[in-house]
Each structure stands twice: as structure tokens, then as C-alpha cells.
Give the backbone structure.
Amino acid sequence: MKTIDGVLWVNDDLCCDNHILTWIRNNYPVSRIDRAASTEEAHYMATAKNYSLIVSNMRRPHDLNAGITLLEKLRESGVKAKYIVYTGQVDSEKERKVLQLGGYAYTTYENVLEAFIHNVLTTELVKKMEPLSTSSPNNKKALDAVIFVNDDVYADMAIRAWISWKFDLKAIYIADSTEKAFELAKQKKCNLIISNMRRPGDEEAG
């Protein structure tokens, strides 16, 4: 099986978040999961090894903005790994700073963190797959559009990422109801419609 470059977890409490690391290890083919307890240690590891994802807390001893400090150092060193700040502190200014520095996300919620991790790691896995052999000069087959139909608009994100990478799409449309999907299909030129079966009020919506 193809593997994804490692995940680096940065937190001065090395016993923190073990259940999330176990979840990653059990669900994604990452080559390794490393831990760092300080900004300096994380910076050294990230410049010495390849990581697909770095997750850091915000506050560490002697630096209340350690998550931002580390991100600044990493970008200055040319490290381009996806970077997520996971913190218990809601702070819109710090969130804005993380995103301005090229961070992938900032969150205080574990379920949202897991969704971000899923998006990053599945996208990285897709990149490891062999591209399609086509006559297109960029090795992608040109398509008009794909419509995804699901009342959960956050579903199918890995599939959407795979299709976006494999094909040269003009658009991906998302509809959360049969009615919206029908209107999109009439208005837009599309090559493929992917629908779930059950939606509220209709067990055979697909």
C-alpha cells in the first residue's frame, strides 16, 4: 500500500491527544507519527524529515504564541507541510495570523480537527496514486463538471479531492437535495452525477 509522509504532533504535554494519534495510526497509512515538545525540537525535526502534516498547540512554556512562532520558523526554512493549530483558545486575531502565514487551519474543536486531518491525509494519499494515462498533455482528462448529491455537504470530500486531482474539471457542484440536483443538471453541462441513496423524507432519493 502507498504510504503518506509522516505526521508531526507538537505539544509540550507529550501525553496529550494520544487518542487522536491512535485514530490517525489506525485509519491512515502514514509512514510515521512523531512527537515534539518544543518549538525548537519541532523545527529541527521538520527540517530534517518530510511531513505531510504538522499539528501544533498554541501555548507552550515561555511563549503564548508558540504555534505561530513555529509556523513562522517553518515557512522561513522552506517547510511546506500542511500546518494546523489545535488549541483550547478561541482567538480570531491568532487564527487570522495563522492563515496569513500559510497555515491550513486553526481550530478549538476535536471533531473539526479530525475533519481537517482527514482532508489533508486523504488528499496526500490521492497524490501518491498513479495518474491516469490519457492523451492530454498534462496527463488529465478534460471534463465539464461533476455533481455530488448528498444532504451532508461535507461527505465525499476524499472522493471530490481524488476527482479534482485526476481530471481537468471545469467545476464540481454540490447539491444537498434532489430538487437542487435536478436544477443543476438542467442548467449545467456535466459528465457525471454521484448521489447518495437516502435523504430526509425520501428513503430512495438516489
